[in-house]
Design a protein that fits this description.
- By secondary structure, this protein is an alpha/beta fold.
- It folds into four domains: 2-87, DNA Methylphosphotriester Repair Domain (3-Layer(aba) Sandwich); 141-191, Arc Repressor Mutant, subunit A, CATH 1.10.10; 198-264, Methylated DNA-protein cysteine methyltransferase domain (Double Stranded RNA Binding Domain), CATH 3.30.160; 276-356, Orthogonal Bundle (Arc Repressor Mutant, subunit A).
- 45% of the residues lie in helices and 12% in strands.
- It has helices at residues 2-10, 21-30, 70-75, 87-105, 112-119, 123-134, 138-154, 160-166, 172-183, 187-191, 229-235, 249-260, 276-286, 296-302, 309-317, 344-356, and strands at 40-43, 48-50, 64-67, 79-80, 198-206, 209-215, 220-225, 240-243, 294-295, 330-331.
- The strands form three sheets. The chain has a four-stranded mixed sheet with strand order 3-1-2-4.
- Helix 4 crosses helix 5 (112-119) and helix 4 (87-105) packs parallel to helix 7.
- The longest helix has 19 residues, at 87-105.
- The radius of gyration is 23 Å and the shape is globular.
């Protein structure tokens, strides 16, 4: 569980470097709550340190210095603000880290009330701070962990029943419900590396070049440019991959409409799975209205991880269904396009087409 251990490290304060001072000051001026717990602002003229969202009147920039946490500020001779109580944020993050460890260590994840009691918080308040720090609720985090464990167990030649209990499920019914929601394929298909799953595909011309549309019975699982059947087989080596017989033609037409006439694009089913963080990012991408863009930093804040800008970029690059999960609507903070797996020319043309005829975002 090395990846999950690294998740815990994200919740611990890091030293403030010179490179983040300007961003920290901007967060203080905006009273940006997403920076609470990431940085402490200490006022030289009063000897008090505050969190970024403190409602107190702002001092002059030259009177403020930044620290990574309250302990560092106290070591420099400052005392905590009695109005915003900045040290409580550090307590929040420690509670979240403890909860993550509890969810990982216990055979069966506790419910919200039990989990909150173990870390000393009221349930509704802890739900909010956990979601703020991790990007998903405690229940969603536990489901993602169990699904990840189940996927690993199913790949070890053991029985499905053994994998169910090894992953921490109380019984088969709960596992099959989660498998339907998150795994996409059946449990046996995961155990056999995707064997038994049927994926139909179409390769067709689009205004942006050759377009691959591939789908399971649930929805589109791959939509990308400049790929073909061979690339699809490399991605799903043990699935049965066949040319479409008309089954997914309507979905392929819908995908073309999303490229050619984005304001008229139909809502298409998708069958994609990722980590909890990736899925949180992809959900935010689908909330961006047609004709609008967001920065990588905007998406990081929206998923409750304002410091994870680079990770958002990685999640964008891992998006398996271009256009339908519109990673092309994410640009850099300076207004430049940033990267795009399909090439910057395609990204620019997609944005131009959308800005010509905007429409509301998908309601998720």
């Amino acid at each position: 569980m090395a990846t999950l251990a690294r998740d815990i490290e994200r919740f611990r304060p890091e030293p403030v470097s010179d490179s983040v001072n300007d961003a920290a000051w901007a967060a203080f001026e905006a009273r940006d709550r997403s920076w609470d717990g990431r940085v402490i602002g200490a006022v030289k003229t009063t000897g008090i340190y505050c969190k970024p969202s403190c409602p107190a009147r702002r001092p002059k920039r030259e009177h403020v210095e930044f620290f990574s946490d309250g302990a560092s500020a106290r070591a420099a001779g400052y005392r905590a603000c009695l109005r915003c109580r900045p040290d409580d944020v550090g307590r929040d993050r420690e509670a979240v880290a403890k909860a993550v460890r509890l969810i990982e260590d216990l055979e069966e994840a506790p419910n919200l009330t039990e989990l909150a009691a173990r870390v000393g918080y009221a349930p509704h308040h802890f739900q909010r701070i956990f979601t703020r720090d991790v990007g998903v609720s405690p229940a969603a985090y536990a489901r993602a962990l169990r699904a990840k464990r189940a996927k690993a167990a199913l790949g070890e030649n053991g029985s499905v029943t053994a994998a169910i209990y090894e992953a921490g499920y109380s019984g088969p019914s709960r596992f099959y419900a989660d498998a339907k929601e998150r795994l996409g394929m059946t449990p046996s298909a995961w155990r056999d590396g995707g064997r038994g799953e049927t994926i139909r595909f179409i390769v067709t011309d689009s205004p942006l070049g050759r377009l691959l549309v591939a789908a399971t019975s649930k929805g589109i699982c791959r939509l990308t440019f400049d790929e073909d059947e061979h690339a699809l087989k490399r991605r799903f080596p043990n699935a049965t991959i066949i040319p479409d017989d008309g089954t997914i033609s309507a979905w392929a037409e819908g995908a073309l409409t999303a490229i050619e006439r984005p304001s008229q694009a139909p809502e298409l089913p998708i069958d994609v799975r990722g980590t909890a963080f990736q899925e949180a990012v992809w959900r935010e991408l689908r909330r961006i209205p047609v004709g609008e863009t967001r920065s990588y930093a905007d998406i990081a804040k929206a998923v409750g991880q304002p410091g994870a800008v680079r990770a958002v970029g990685t999640a964008n690059g891992s998006n398996p269904v271009a256009v339908l999960v519109p990673c092309h609507r994410v640009i850099r903070s300076d207004g430049s396009l940033g990267g795009y797996a399909g090439g910057l020319d395609r990204k620019r043309r997609l944005l131009d087409a959308e800005q010509a005829n905007p429409q509301p975002a998908l309601n998720l």
